[in-house]
């Protein structure tokens, strides 16, 4: 089974929740009898719950469960408090105020759907407990009027709905933040293209998909005499030129092509399902577009040299492809720059 970072996080969260349940039960068993006299049934049920929660804890620790199994198990572990609820006044029990925590836990561990399902199960249980309230015992011998029971159910349902909505918003924010972090991790901050890490992630995937019938092409694109721009006009103007070249390349390529900043003034474009013959035409277009443009307010001329290669049907690796394209690029540089050079091997 492939274990993702999310699975690890869910696993860790579930363990913490079960640990808290165990600690709460131990506190209830040890401390509560000292504070007031309680019916022995409570103690027995709490001891059984403690045993079940401990077994459950070790089952979770032993292996990774998928998020549905975790959510169901979590609900089951929280339902351990149900026998206690039934003998302590149902919705009127002080324990009932644990219930609204459950949809939030389900959202954190499972997701929106799990939180929704768990919330609806709890609301149904509360409605049933209110309708059949007369059959619920209260070993503490408290008397509750129907009005009080209904009003408690009302507030419990409201808090459970609140908890479901909160869980949903929390997850949305969390997902947005993690997506943003993921993007930032894979993006070059200056040009907003993929960075080296982003490139290798996409490149591996594309190479896996490539077959003999439809090879991919790769080009390394290097700005010519870029050092001179920096030296004569400063780093800031150099940066502006990099951004403009990046934009031209991105806009001229097709939707499925991948473009990344490989480092310094070097870019890599991956053209899936593209032969070297088709790639030469695309590379020529890129070269022409960059050379026809002028850069920054100083209207600087810039050119690029492109080294191009095609994936081989067998024993191909990302490193080998890049090496071939790099060799072609340096041949292009030696031949005078502002040109497209195809790899020989
Ligand atoms: N402004 C700016 N310059 C950068 C950045 N990264 C690298 N450079 C510069 O890019 C220049 C690359 O110079 P060289 O590798 O000598 O290449 P070149 O001058 O383009 O010469 P050829 O590639 O042979 O045509 C260096 O001066 C680097 O300092 C950056 O993020 N911003």
TrEMBL record:
Record organism: Marinomonas colpomeniae
Keywords tagged on the record: Membrane, Transmembrane, Transmembrane helix
Recorded catalytic activity of this chain's protein: 2 GTP = 3',3'-c-di-GMP + 2 diphosphate
Protein name: diguanylate cyclase
Signal sequence interval, chain numbering: none
PROSITE patterns tied to this protein: GGDEF
Transmembrane segments: 12-35, 41-60, 116-133, 153-171
InterPro entries found in the cross-reference section: Diguanylate_Cyclase, GGDEF_dom, Nucleotide_cyclase, Rev_trsase/Diguanyl_cyclase
């Amino acid at each position: 089974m492939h274990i993702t970072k999310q699975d690890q996080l869910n696993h860790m969260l579930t363990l913490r929740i079960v640990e808290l349940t165990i600690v709460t039960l131990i506190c209830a068993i040890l401390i509560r009898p000292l504070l007031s006299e309680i019916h022995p049934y409570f103690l027995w049920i709490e001891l059984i719950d403690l045993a079940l929660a401990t077994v459950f804890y070790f089952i979770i620790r032993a292996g990774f469960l998928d998020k549905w199994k975790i959510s169901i198990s979590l609900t089951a572990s929280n339902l351990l408090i149900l026998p206690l609820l039934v003998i302590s006044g149902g919705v009127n029990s002080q324990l009932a105020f644990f219930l609204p925590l459950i949809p939030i836990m389900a959202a954190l561990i499972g997701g929106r759907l799990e939180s929704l399902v768990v919330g609806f199960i709890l609301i149904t249980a509360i409605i049933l407990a209110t309708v059949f309230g007369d059959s619920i015992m209260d070993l503490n011998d408290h008397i509750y009027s129907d009005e009080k029971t209904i009003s408690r159910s009302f507030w419990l349902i409201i808090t459970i709905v609140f908890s479901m909505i909160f869980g949903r918003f929390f997850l949305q924010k969390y997902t947005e933040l993690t997506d943003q972090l993921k993007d930032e991790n894979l993006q070059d901050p200056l040009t907003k293209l993929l960075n080296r890490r982003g490139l290798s992630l996409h490149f591996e995937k594309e190479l896996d998909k490539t077959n003999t019938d439809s090879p991919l092409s790769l080009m390394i694109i290097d700005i010519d005499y870029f050092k001179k721009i920096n030296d004569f006009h400063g780093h800031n103007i150099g940066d502006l030129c990099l951004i403009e070249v990046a934009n031209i390349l991105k806009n001229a390529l097709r939707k499925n092509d991948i473009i990344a900043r490989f480092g310094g003034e070097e870019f890599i474009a991956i053209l899936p399902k593209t032969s070297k013959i088709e790639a030469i035409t695309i590379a020529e277009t890129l070269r022409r577009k960059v050379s026809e443009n002028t850069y920054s307010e100083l209207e600087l001329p810039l050119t690029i040299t492109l080294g191009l290669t095609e994936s081989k049907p067998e024993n191909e690796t990302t490193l080998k492809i890049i090496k071939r394209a790099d060799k072609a690029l340096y041949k292009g540089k030696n031949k005078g720059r502002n040109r497209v050079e195809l790899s020989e091997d």
